[in-house]
Task: structure prediction
Amino acid sequence: MNYKKLAAFASAAAMTLGALIGGAGSASAAAGDAFQNEYSSVNGDSQIMAVISDKAGNDFTGFGRIIPTEKQASNREGLHWCMSTKDPQCDYTVPGDTYAGQVVLEDCSLTTSPYCVEKLSLAGNGKDFDAAKFVRPSKQQQFEADPAINFPSGGSTGLYTSDSAPTSGGLNSYAVTVVLKLSWDENTRKFVPSGLMANVYPYREQPDSRLRGIAGSGDSIGAGCIFVEPGKCGILQDWKTGTRAKLSVRVPSVVGGWFKGRITNPEISVEPVDASVNRITVAADPVTVPQLGVVMPKSEKDELLNSNLNLGWWGGPGFVEVGTEAGGNTVSQFIERYRALTKDSASGATTMWNFASVNAGNGSGCLSDVSKVQGIVTTNAMGYDGSAPSYENGMLTYHVSGMHYLADGTTLAEGTYDLIMRSDTARCLYGFSKAPIQAVISVIDDKGEAKTAVATVNEADGWLTMRAYGFTFSNPVVKVKLSQAKELGGVEANGKAKKVITCVKGKLTKKVSGTAPKCPAGYKKKS
Result:
């Protein structure tokens, strides 16, 4: 996202997130509603909200023509919203014009598109997974496919019910928004799948006559809504403790590489549906994520935007929100700016369940192959690396950051970190054989000292799973060191079976092991 100029497609969408702040007000709270700091009360005439935005997608299908910088004076967003694939102001044959877009994948029961939401399952309070019932899509504009520009059909957020897994507010309603991101190939003049974002939300419905439910209208998401319809929106609720979700989606096989997530204890599987479509299934627990939103004098806006931090501004009338994304490259500096002011405490916490594709980590070509899903890294940190772990000095490294305390100022914010990667990716990094892999996980604070964490490692079915839980925050680095013993479990590092022989020298005996063991000088093999 280009924060300074708000030129990217996602930036224009993000501007609608707080469209009613400083105007019509925010939604009233009900039992089970999630904390959303971006919708706190702000006096738009004298105040701004310095905020870390923690969104993983928007609830509409659409695309736009990105307007060149020199022509943006009359278009603040730097984007012309195309009303359809036949919009006369979106002439795809014009050289130099660039487009960006996204489609919300529909439930597979609604569409003939090969890309769709296949199944949502929920497990409440330690029970087995039970398939949620698809009820209907939310009422938003549908886009038909246009094969001429490789634009797939798209719809809107899907609404489901589950009687076996109530929300925190005691409801049975869940929303699924899976977004396929599209970039523009200027050579072929066609769209190319470039990423994936998937959210599962507990929600409640709330009537709101102000909402038209039109993407890009300025009121399309409203005050705290995670989807909208004309006159109605879905208010985000927290997950009930003990609930686990599993989501299966069909996506283009070219969508690979690495994923991030606001989940914990994840399991991931990838299997081909056909030559061009993969089924990606993620099962995981929701995770509680500390949030940051600080009401500041309006002068803070200019100070922030003139700083060396990679920030942006959005939020409806007056653009009263200034900040960065949780995975932004300067998020740790943003947190430090307000650590003393907040007494090292979060503003609140929200339970989340989402995952999204991210860029590969630096340091090795082994991490950059996008022809297959390489792995997923998840954390509940307030701020985190917006890419996969990097390979530095023989270790996989990942940076997280946050306040030490939750909103009460006394309860420590405890971190979670899950890394699941293909075993063959690990073997590529280190040149390992097929023998089992060992790993050591360490969490190092900004003083170079190890922080207490419970770490587990497991390798099964071609995936290596590493977890670190229970560490506390400032700006720690999670480091993973992989190794492989020369002999482990009766198998040599080259994967060949070991043999053991007994050698004798007079009254002395010696056992020698290896794939081709030989007795040392002066010894003879015992027959």
